[in-house]
Fold this sequence. Notes:
This protein is of the alpha/beta class. It has helices at 19-35, 48-51, 56-75, 93-105, 121-129, and strands at 5-9, 39-41, 80-83, 112-113. It has a single domain, classed as 3-Layer(aba) Sandwich (Rossmann fold). A four-stranded parallel β-sheet has the order 2-1-3-4, sandwiched between helices. Helix 1 packs antiparallel against helix 5 and helix 3 (56-75) packs parallel to helix 4 (93-105). The longest helix has 20 residues, at 56-75. The mean pLDDT is 80.
Amino acid sequence: MTRAPVYICAPYAPGEHTIESNVRRACSLARAAAVEGFAPLVVHPGILPVYGSDSPAARAVGLDVDLALLELVAAHPQGELWVLMPGSGLPTAGMQLELEAWSRLVPPGRRVVADWEGWSPRITAAISASSTW
Protein backbone atom coordinates (compact mmCIF):
# COMPACT_ATOMS: atom_id res chain seq x y z
CA MET A 1 0.00 0.00 0.00
CA THR A 2 1.38 3.40 -0.97
CA ARG A 3 0.51 6.05 1.56
CA ALA A 4 0.39 9.75 0.78
CA PRO A 5 2.41 11.74 3.32
CA VAL A 6 0.59 14.19 5.54
CA TYR A 7 2.37 16.80 7.63
CA ILE A 8 0.49 17.61 10.84
CA CYS A 9 0.68 21.34 11.61
CA ALA A 10 -0.54 21.97 15.15
CA PRO A 11 0.33 24.04 18.22
CA TYR A 12 3.20 22.86 20.42
CA ALA A 13 3.96 25.71 22.81
CA PRO A 14 1.64 26.21 25.75
CA GLY A 15 -1.24 28.56 25.16
CA GLU A 16 -4.82 27.47 25.48
CA HIS A 17 -3.48 23.92 26.14
CA THR A 18 -0.33 22.58 27.80
CA ILE A 19 2.56 21.19 25.76
CA GLU A 20 1.52 17.68 26.81
CA SER A 21 -2.05 18.25 25.68
CA ASN A 22 -0.90 19.75 22.37
CA VAL A 23 1.31 16.71 21.73
CA ARG A 24 -1.59 14.35 22.49
CA ARG A 25 -3.91 16.28 20.16
CA ALA A 26 -1.41 16.24 17.28
CA CYS A 27 -0.71 12.52 17.82
CA SER A 28 -4.45 11.75 17.87
CA LEU A 29 -4.82 13.34 14.46
CA ALA A 30 -1.75 11.46 13.20
CA ARG A 31 -3.09 8.11 14.43
CA ALA A 32 -6.43 8.73 12.78
CA ALA A 33 -4.71 9.73 9.52
CA ALA A 34 -2.66 6.52 9.58
CA VAL A 35 -5.83 4.44 10.03
CA GLU A 36 -7.24 6.23 6.97
CA GLY A 37 -4.24 5.12 4.90
CA PHE A 38 -2.01 8.19 5.10
CA ALA A 39 1.60 8.38 6.29
CA PRO A 40 1.44 11.17 8.88
CA LEU A 41 4.44 13.13 10.02
CA VAL A 42 4.01 14.81 13.38
CA VAL A 43 7.10 16.48 14.82
CA HIS A 44 5.63 17.14 18.26
CA PRO A 45 6.75 13.97 20.08
CA GLY A 46 10.11 13.37 18.38
CA ILE A 47 11.67 16.54 17.04
CA LEU A 48 10.43 19.45 19.12
CA PRO A 49 11.27 17.98 22.57
CA VAL A 50 14.80 17.14 21.41
CA TYR A 51 15.58 20.77 20.65
CA GLY A 52 13.14 22.35 23.06
CA SER A 53 13.01 26.06 23.56
CA ASP A 54 15.71 26.33 26.24
CA SER A 55 17.72 28.71 24.10
CA PRO A 56 17.10 30.65 20.91
CA ALA A 57 19.91 28.72 19.18
CA ALA A 58 18.41 25.32 20.07
CA ARG A 59 14.95 26.46 18.99
CA ALA A 60 16.37 27.69 15.66
CA VAL A 61 17.96 24.29 14.99
CA GLY A 62 14.69 22.54 15.89
CA LEU A 63 12.72 24.77 13.53
CA ASP A 64 15.24 24.13 10.74
CA VAL A 65 14.80 20.37 11.20
CA ASP A 66 11.03 20.78 11.35
CA LEU A 67 10.95 22.77 8.10
CA ALA A 68 13.27 20.28 6.37
CA LEU A 69 10.76 17.53 7.15
CA LEU A 70 7.89 19.69 5.93
CA GLU A 71 9.84 20.17 2.70
CA LEU A 72 10.00 16.39 2.20
CA VAL A 73 6.22 16.12 2.46
CA ALA A 74 5.75 19.13 0.17
CA ALA A 75 8.01 17.53 -2.45
CA HIS A 76 5.77 14.46 -2.69
CA PRO A 77 3.14 14.91 -5.43
CA GLN A 78 0.39 13.70 -3.08
CA GLY A 79 1.74 15.33 0.08
CA GLU A 80 -0.77 17.22 2.17
CA LEU A 81 -0.67 19.66 5.05
CA TRP A 82 -3.26 19.17 7.78
CA VAL A 83 -3.71 22.09 10.14
CA LEU A 84 -5.07 21.72 13.65
CA MET A 85 -5.77 25.36 14.43
CA PRO A 86 -5.95 26.61 18.02
CA GLY A 87 -9.37 27.62 19.30
CA SER A 88 -8.48 31.26 18.68
CA GLY A 89 -8.40 30.53 14.96
CA LEU A 90 -4.91 32.05 14.76
CA PRO A 91 -1.79 29.95 14.15
CA THR A 92 1.03 30.00 16.67
CA ALA A 93 4.38 31.47 15.60
CA GLY A 94 5.75 28.01 14.76
CA MET A 95 2.63 27.08 12.82
CA GLN A 96 2.85 30.35 10.89
CA LEU A 97 6.40 29.44 9.79
CA GLU A 98 5.14 26.04 8.61
CA LEU A 99 2.20 27.58 6.74
CA GLU A 100 4.44 30.13 5.03
CA ALA A 101 6.96 27.44 4.06
CA TRP A 102 4.18 25.27 2.61
CA SER A 103 2.94 28.22 0.56
CA ARG A 104 6.43 28.72 -0.88
CA LEU A 105 7.10 25.04 -1.54
CA VAL A 106 3.95 23.76 -3.22
CA PRO A 107 2.09 24.82 -6.34
CA PRO A 108 -1.15 26.73 -5.85
CA GLY A 109 -4.11 24.46 -5.30
CA ARG A 110 -2.15 21.74 -3.47
CA ARG A 111 -4.21 20.41 -0.65
CA VAL A 112 -4.18 22.03 2.75
CA VAL A 113 -6.83 20.63 5.05
CA ALA A 114 -7.47 23.02 7.90
CA ASP A 115 -10.87 22.19 9.26
CA TRP A 116 -12.91 19.30 10.58
CA GLU A 117 -15.08 19.20 7.46
CA GLY A 118 -12.02 18.58 5.30
CA TRP A 119 -11.09 15.42 7.16
CA SER A 120 -13.10 12.30 6.55
CA PRO A 121 -15.97 11.61 8.96
CA ARG A 122 -14.02 8.61 10.28
CA ILE A 123 -11.06 10.80 11.25
CA THR A 124 -13.34 13.37 12.85
CA ALA A 125 -15.08 10.63 14.84
CA ALA A 126 -11.78 9.05 15.91
CA ILE A 127 -10.41 12.36 17.18
CA SER A 128 -13.66 13.35 18.90
CA ALA A 129 -13.87 9.96 20.66
CA SER A 130 -10.20 9.83 21.60
CA SER A 131 -9.58 9.65 25.32
CA THR A 132 -6.39 11.67 24.75
CA TRP A 133 -8.21 14.54 23.07
